[in-house]
């Protein structure tokens, strides 16, 4: 099997989602770091691969693809159709897609709006509406996990990997997951089930350090 090249920025939750998907599939991944803070994504060689200059990006046998949800579903489709990570059953797959869209459009965007201004030093306090947006999103996730082990079906799927990668960024800046019993229990299951989770946590720690460099106190005291 040819090695897949993953252009990766460890603090990025989408990058960590794509990497954990590859680890779950047992794929040989050649990681190439792209430091967004140093604007390495604008280097000419990278722009030839991805004119959108975003990470994660993969190259697989000459095929270039970016956007973590597209990457992860592609990897499962090509290398792990029977893995259960992206179910073949139409209704289960649609439910996974629903949770992937929730991650991309709601959870990730709200946590990003909370944290990124501190990474770039453009904020000194957390607006109440931004904080409430994060809490509301995690409330939705908690409700989605009521009486369930995983977000979709009875096995771990891409829905869990995507959402937990994003949620890690809230926890590392001070969000107390124990306020949401379903989420807290699910988070613990993800830790012990997802291959590469410890590797993910190293990137999470880097993300937390970037935020704390400009705001040492927890964003959720």
From TrEMBL:
| Signal sequence residues | none
Looking up InterPro entries in the UniProt record yields: Glutathione-S-Trfase_C-like (IPR010987), Glutathione-S-Trfase_C_sf (IPR036282), Glutathione_S-Trfase (IPR040079), Glutathione_S-Trfase_N (IPR004045), GST_C (IPR004046), Thioredoxin-like_sf (IPR036249)
Tell me, which GO biological process terms does this entry list?
glutathione metabolic process
Q: Which residues form the GST C-terminal domain?
A: 89-220
Q: Which domain of life is it from?
A: Eukaryota
Q: Where is the GST N-terminal domain?
A: 2-83
Pfam families per the record? Answer: GST_C, GST_N
Tell me one GO molecular function of this protein: glutathione transferase activity
**Family designation:** Belongs to the GST superfamily.
Q: How does it assemble?
A: Homodimer.
Its recorded name reads: Glutathione S-transferase 1-1
The species this protein belongs to is: Frankliniella occidentalis (Western flower thrips)
């Amino acid at each position: 099997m040819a090695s897949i090249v993953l252009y990766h920025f460890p603090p990025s939750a989408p990058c960590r989602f794509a990497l954990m998907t590859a680890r779950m599939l047992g794929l040989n991944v050649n990681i190439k770091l792209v430091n967004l803070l140093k604007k390495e994504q604008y280097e000419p060689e990278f722009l030839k691969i991805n004119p959108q200059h975003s990470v994660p990006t993969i190259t697989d046998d000459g095929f270039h693809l970016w956007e973590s949800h597209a990457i992860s579903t592609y990897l499962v489709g090509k290398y792990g159709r029977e893995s259960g990570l992206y179910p073949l059953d139409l209704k289960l797959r649609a439910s996974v897609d629903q949770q992937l869209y929730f991650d991309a459009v709601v959870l990730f965007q709200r946590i990003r709006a909370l944290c990124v201004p501190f990474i770039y030093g453009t904020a000194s306090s957390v607006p109440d509406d931004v904080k409430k947006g994060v809490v509301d999103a995690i409330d939705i996730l908690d409700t989605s996990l009521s009486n369930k082990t995983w977000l979709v079906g009875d096995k771990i799927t891409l829905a869990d990997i995507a959402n937990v990668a994003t949620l890690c960024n809230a926890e590392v800046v001070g969000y107390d997951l124990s306020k949401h019993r379903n989420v807290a229990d699910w988070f613990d299951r993800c830790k012990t089930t997802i291959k590469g989770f410890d590797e993910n946590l190293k990137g999470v720690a880097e993300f937390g350090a970037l935020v704390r460099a400009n705001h040492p106190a927890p964003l959720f005291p």
